[in-house]
Write a structure and sequence with these properties.
Keywords: 4Fe-4S, Iron, Iron-sulfur, Metal-binding, Oxidoreductase
Protein name: Glutamate synthase (NADPH/NADH) small chain
CATH superfamily of the largest domain: FAD/NAD(P)-binding domain
Largest sheet: 5 strands, parallel
Domain Dihydroprymidine dehydrogenase: 27-136
Helix content: 25-40%
Number of helices: 19
CATH class of the largest domain: Alpha Beta
Radius of gyration: 24 Å
Pfam families: Fer4_20, Pyr_redox_2
Strand content: 15-25%
InterPro entries: DPD_II (IPR028261), FAD/NAD-bd_sf (IPR036188), FAD/NAD-binding_dom (IPR023753), GltD-like (IPR006006), Helical_ferredxn (IPR009051)
Shape: globular
Number of strands: 15
Structural class: alpha/beta
């Protein structure tokens, strides 16, 4: 490669794909960014400095070979770039769309730190893989060996579960995936709105896995349809990859009023409508923001998904209350900017104190002004109430987006011997990723707590290796016993 093909960050400025204007995008659920054209993808990839210690790769949970596929893209070798990209990731087009690159690869880009603006890694990653699907470079899933004498059961069809399923199927195992929903993908399908991740992107990945021989069992609940022990008897090993779905609640007067709803219920209803499903709670207005004054409580990415969904549903107004300031919110700053462009009003340093209940329906939020005090145990500055700083916000729909905790899996699964941590997450051996039950492994958010999709993919990749080691040892022991 000629040196002139790279290191162009001094003369070529940072350029993200063009965003559709807010007035054009605020009434549909299509992705807001237009696609790169080939020349622009090559140009932006050529800004990479090819540094000796690639901080972008170091800070990627998957340790993607980012500088190498940027170089290949700059040279126009897109198929090779895709092959390198998918060597470490089962869903590069998903990560390219929804990873918080500003906090991971791009936020740690060397040229970003030098003031030239990071390489637009996520946008290039998305372009590479979208091109691969278009050109037919995405290969079918084919087992590399035959271990069909052993089967694996995976509970949860989210990112961790389907990633582990793919890697285990590649090794030749019979793989069955069980999920409580009627479609796979977990929060990729039902939690993340289409304007960030169009559902066809997820569905085509799932279709590839089904065509590769992975069997999906939908509308299946462990504890209702089978206990964990019954599933364990059916398979040679199990993986629990359920994620965390229990919504954190607000303790305040009036929180039980009609129209005060959990974020995930709201997002699932919206996404189901996007699929064309009948959703009675949406159709009767319970989970529909149309014409309403909406208040979302929270400052994470789920809160951003809710406010931007409410805009698209035709809300009369949308406000977001968060108890810290903008600089200390956990959600993506890019998402905040997108929401502001679409008309969302952020009320920083504020927290709900009570909800006005008018004949069983919420009518407003009484809130308190906050200030940031000394850092707490986590190192973040703790919010403190400002006395006399009370105010009221009109609302007839309040969405609680305060994060998620694990469900009580031992009780749900009928598995009292499944041990948990004090946070309710599954306790696993750090090396093997096995739970307290022999042959039952766990990965993703149900182990680490609510986290990023890219970490779930990483965990799915890692647990597939340890499960293979366990299954191979078990097969070897069986063979030795049979020979004796």
């Amino acid at each position: 490669m000629a040196e002139k093909d790279m290191l162009k960050f001094v003369g070529v400025g940072q350029a993200f794909p063009e965003k559709r204007p807010a007035a054009e995008r605020d009434d549909d659920f299509l992705e807001i960014n237009r696609a790169y054209i080939l020349a622009k993808a090559e140009e932006q990839a050529s800004r990479c400095s090819q540094c000796g210690v690639p901080f972008c790769q170091v800070h990627c949970p998957l340790h993607n070979n980012i500088p190498d596929w940027l170089r290949l893209t700059a040279e126009g070798r897109l198929q090779e770039a895709y092959e390198l990209s998918e060597a470490t990731s089962t869903m590069p087009e998903v990560c390219g769309r929804i990873c918080p690159q500003d906090r991971l690869c791009e936020g740690n880009c060397v040229i970003e730190q030098s003031g030239h603006g990071a390489v637009t890694i996520g946008s290039v990653e998305k372009f590479i893989t979208d091109t691969a699907w278009k050109e037919g470079w995405v290969r079918p899933l084919r087992p590399l060996s035959d271990r069909s004498g052993q089967s694996v059961g995976i509970i949860g069809a989210g990112p961790a579960g389907v990633t582990a399923a793919e890697y285990l199927r590649r090794r030749g195992y019979e793989v069955h995936v069980y999920d409580r929903h009627d479609r796979g993908g977990g929060l990729l399908t039902y939690g993340i709105p289409g304007f960030k991740l169009e559902k066809e992107i997820v569905m085509r990945r799932l279709a590839r896995l089904e065509e590769g021989g992975i069997v999906f069992h939908y509308d299946f609940e462990v504890g209702r349809d089978m206990t964990l022990a019954q599933l364990r008897a059916k398979h040679d090993a199990l993986l629990v990859a359920t994620g965390v779905y229990k919504a954190r609640d607000i303790k305040a007067p009036g929180v039980g009023a009609g129209g005060v709803i959990p974020a995930l219920d709201y997002l699932i209803a919206s996404n189901r409508k996007s699929f064309g499903d009948s959703v009675p709670a949406f159709e009767n207005g319970s989970l529909n923001a149309e014409g309403k004054h909406v208040v979302v409580v929270g400052g994470g990415d789920t809160a951003m998904d809710c406010v931007r969904t409410a805009v698209r549903q035709g809300a009369a107004s949308v406000k977001c209350l968060y108890r810290r300031d903008r600089a200390n919110m956990p959600g993506s700053q890019r998402e905040v900017a997108n929401a502001e462009e679409e008309g969302v009003v952020f009320v920083w340093l504020s927290a709900p104190q009570a909800f006005d209940d008018n004949a069983g329906k919420v009518a407003g939020v009484r809130a308190q002004q906050m200030r940031l005090g000394a850092p707490d145990a986590s190192g973040r500055r703790a919010p403190e109430v400002i006395e006399g700083g009370d105010f009221r916000v009109e609302a007839d729909l309040v969405i609680k987006a305060l994060g998620f905790d694990p469900e009580d899996l031992p009780q749900m699964f009928g598995a009292p011997d499944l041990t948990v941590t004090r946070w309710g997450t599954l306790r696993t051996d750090h090396k093997t990723m096995m739970t307290s039950v022999d042959g039952v492994f766990a990965a993703g958010d149900i182990v680490r707590g609510a986290s990023l999709v890219v970490w779930a993919i990483r965990d799915g990749r890692d647990v597939a290796k340890t499960m293979h080691t366990y299954l191979a040892a078990r097969a070897g022991a069986s063979a030795t016993k049979a020979a004796a």
